[in-house]
Amino acid sequence: MRKPLKIGPFELALPAIQAGLAGYSDMAMRVTARRRGCPYAVTEALLDRVMLAGGKAREKGLILHDEDHPVAGQLLGSEADEMAAAARLLVEYGFDTVDLNFACPVKKVMGRCRGGYLLSDPAQAKAIMQAVRDAVSVPITMKLRRGLDGSALAAERFEQIFSHATELNFAAVAVHGRTVEQKYTGRADWDFLAGLKQHHPAMTILGSGDVFCAGDAMGMLGKTNLDGVWIARGAIGNPWIFSEFAALLDGKPLPPAPTIFEQRAALLEHFMLAVEIYGEALASRQMRKIGIKYSRLHPEGARVWQDFIAVKNQREWDRVLDVYYSADGPGRPQISVADAADLYNGCQMDAARVPAEV
Length: 358
Hints:
Helix content is 45%, strand content 13%. By secondary structure, the protein is an alpha/beta fold. It folds into two domains: 12-249, Aldolase class I (TIM Barrel); 260-352, no CATH class.
């Protein structure tokens, strides 16, 4: 089943992308995954007006690393001229691709006519697409959901926007199998994704939704015949998902779960890369939510989770590693979010279970 994934001039040996995830997919997460087989990554959604205003928030979002290519800068906004100007800025900063977010279901984003809201306004969506296409010469991709809701009108509007992407020669479109209205509830509709590929065979289409492990990625490709898999929540705390997916595509057995020492090495790398972005104090707080994701692969996951969530500085971070990651041994295989809820029975799981996939 292994076939390269083409996005503009980039030919990826593995048909998988690390998705944009609000608060997670910064340079540190992207580079940690790239060192373990991820061929291409997307930033979290960058608000066009923040990009244009400048300041520390913009600079942190635009940080790249020598190993962080090819990379897409994902834009979120509502006005065509501002989105076009922000796209030009991304290219100036060295991003290889511009990705348009017409998918985010978060209430405050929708309320400002951004993200998934644009699936209800094809005219404005098309205006943004055209303006960005005219503004930059790099490949353009976009992220959609399968509609604002399950209505016939929503389906018609989706098709108008998707077809316009083909007319403008967008390099790829990633489609989440849930509607905007569903947010993260229910199952992603992989049958919809399969039908979309049948209807638009020439467009490079990436599938999104319910890919929590390498087996899920295989299942999505097999069921939908899409060109690639947009791996979102399944990649947080599990950068090995890409090498595991590659092994399955090559007809090999699923590799063993990363050992304790392999997990420690990734955690140390991820932390030090985060320090480059945020400084030691802020990185220590930022990495709590990352550490609890990695804890799912540890045999004492629930205890590790509890200790990571209490970390306030690098000394406490190092203490958790010394307590739980100083002796090698086998890790736990990646598990679904539902299984994780059972594993961490009694813990406050809200922050750990549903990051904002955009």
